[in-house]
Design brief:
Layout lengths: L2 H17 L19 E2 L14 H12 L12 H11 L6 E5 H12 L10 E6 L3 H9 L3 E6 L8 H11 L3 E5 L11 H13 L5 E5 L3 H4 L11 H7 L3 E6 L10 E5 L2 H10 L7 H11 L3 H22 L5 E2 L7 E6 L4 H10 L2 E2 L1 E3 L2 E8 L3 H15 L5
Parallel strand pairs: 1-11, 3-4, 3-5, 5-6, 6-7
Antiparallel strand pairs: 2-8, 7-8, 9-10, 10-13, 12-13
Helix pairs in contact: 2-11, 3-11, 4-5, 4-10, 6-7, 12-14
């Protein structure tokens, strides 16, 4: 390295130390495993949607996209998409904040609600384990993060969470239900009592009910019996509901939204960047929520069917244990085999899944097509039997 390059490195390191928040030092960029494998079951994506569309459905989507003029900025209010979402979920358009996936909506929430109390930094309360972007985005925005471990059944710890709310008076409490990576929906009664506790602190805490995986929970056996976060919002104005199209076959669009009381939504809109959602995404998402809705419902139903079959097959596999699966993935415990070791062995057999260092005996496996699930089951049995890749 030249002297000039060395000086540049030193200068940039000094700049980073002086100008970036300390929280960045504890974070790492999210980089998915880029290994090309035949079967990817690591990202909670739905199987490919386009091959399931008939000719008329493909033509409908193509027509929607062909009307996009790339020389023009997107509709800053996403008017057509806003109307489609509002009509789909029965909400007011003024209660919606639409973002580039749930990730941006989470960042918008945290940017808007960042005022601390008693001279202390703003705080969030989250279960553990849960969706990592709550913590990452909170730290980037200067929040302290209080974690409350899930109970032995991977359900939310009601008393622990209420105690944390009372002690820290957090700006936001995040509850993803069904939860990622554990897949189970939290007990509805526990969630309601946490919402009530959040309303009683001064100032009240916003409770975010993240329903990214709601379509899969609403299948047969729904533990909430049709109740959703929108019902909780109707009962308690400090609830915010998150939803997304990413899990039902439309991850490439990066469309997510929050539903909040219109007064709070108006404050969040002040933070949202203009032109944040590309026109192609707006057009495709509006189409998916309208004319393509039956195709999306069909796709979700197929995933739920494959989930039931996968769980049935897993019950026959020795040394594998799991609980509720209300999302489009399963949270598997492996007896006598570490998650990292299992992930490596499965990858060698052409199947990519996700392991979690904080839970070294666990892996998370997305529900794929029938053929993909069969490939995973074959690879898992072979791995547990000690076969060579």
């Amino acid at each position: 390295m030249s002297d000039a390059a060395v000086r540049a490195v030193r200068a940039v390191r000094a700049l980073i130390a002086a100008r970036t928040p300390p929280a960045l030092a504890e974070l790492s960029p999210y980089v998915p495993d880029p290994t090309p494998v035949p079967v990817r079951l690591d990202a909670n994506e739905a199987p490919a949607l386009l091959p399931t569309l008939d000719e008329a459905e493909r033509a409908c989507l193509a027509e929607a996209l062909s009307a996009v003029e790339p020389a023009r900025y997107p509709d800053v209010r996403a008017t057509a998409l806003r109307a489609a979402i509002a009509g789909k979920i029965g909400a007011s358009g003024d209660s919606l904040v639409i973002g580039v996936g749930s990730d941006e909506v989470i960042a918008i929430l945290l940017a808007a609600l960042g005022r601390g109390v008693d001279g202390k930094p703003a705080t969030i309360v989250v279960p553990a384990p849960t969706f990592v972007m709550y913590r990452i985005s909170a730290r980037v925005h200067g929040y302290d993060v209080v974690t409350v471990p899930l109970d032995a059944d991977w359900d939310v710890d009601e008393q622990g969470t209420i105690d944390a709310i009372r002690a820290h008076r957090p700006a936001v409490v995040f509850l993803a239900t069904p939860n990622n990576p554990t897949s189970g929906a939290y007990d509805l009664g526990r969630v309601r009592r946490i919402v009530e506790a959040a309303a009683r602190v001064d100032p009240p805490s916003v409770v975010v009910v993240d329903e990214a995986y709601l379509p899969f929970r609403l299948a047969e056996g729904d533990p909430w019996r049709g109740v959703t976060g929108l019902d909780l919002l109707a009962e308690s104005s400090h609830v915010v509901v998150l939803r997304t199209l990413s899990k039902i076959g439309l991850a490439a669009l990066r469309v997510g939204w929050a539903v909040a009381h219109p007064l709070l939504a108006a404050e969040l809109e002040k933070v949202r960047l203009p032109y944040n959602l590309p026109t192609f995404s707006q057009a495709a998402a509006a189409c998916a929520l309208g004319p393509l809705a039956p195709a999306i419902d069909r796709h979700v139903a197929n995933v739920c069917e494959q989930r039931a079959r996968l769980l049935s097959e897993l019950r026959r596999v020795d040394r594998v244990r799991f609980g509720r699966a209300d999302a489009n993935f399963v949270w598997l415990g492996l007896e006598g085999l570490g998650g990292a070791e299992a992930t490596s062995a499965l990858k060698a057999r052409g199947v990519l899944v996700r392991n979690f260092p904080a839970h070294p005996d666990r892996i998370r496996v997305s529900v794929g097509t029938r053929a993909e699930c069969d490939r995973f089951l074959e690879a898992l049995r072979d791995t547990l039997a000690g076969g060579r890749a």
